Amino acid sequence: QQIGARIAYNEIDMVLFFCDPQTHDLDTDVDYITRLCDQYNIPYATNVGTAEMLIHGLERGDLDWRDIVSPKTAPFTV
Fold first, then answer.
1. Is the pLDDT of residue 65 over 90?
2. Contact 31, 3 (CB under 8 A)
3. Where are the domains of the chain?
4. Is the distance from CB of 33 to CB of 7 less than 8 angstroms?
5. Residue 63: per-residue pLDDT
6. Statement: residue 67 has pLDDT above 70
7. Dihedral angle sign, alpha carbons of residues 45, 26, 41, 14
8. CA 73 to CA 45: how far, in whole Å?
9. Topology of domain 2-69, CATH
């Protein structure tokens, strides 16, 4: 639920989720996070190759388009 809330509030740049490909019983929470990533345009990697591409893209600034589509809000200050 905490990861889902951070996705919904645009506090996460990407999700990297690795699991054992031999298991067939993925949790419903993982399915929920996958759907949230699709809904909020959060890049989501499930293997090392994709994760590496996303990390390099984040480092180069290739994911900066996300700030234009849904800008992060500044924290509330008094």
1. no
2. no
3. 2-69
4. yes
5. 78
6. no
7. negative
8. 25
9. Rossmann fold (3.40.50)
Opening angle at CA 11, ends 49 and 14, nearest 5: 5
Q: How confident is the model at residue 78 (pLDDT cuts 50, 70, 90)?
A: low
Let me know: does 25 contact 12? Beta carbons within 8 Å: no
Lookup: tokens for 25: 């019983």
Which amino acid makes up residue 12?
A: I
Model pLDDT for residues 9-51, shown as the tens digit of each residue: 888 889 998 877 777 776 777 888 899 999 988 999 989 999 9
Distance CA 56, CA 10 (A): 20
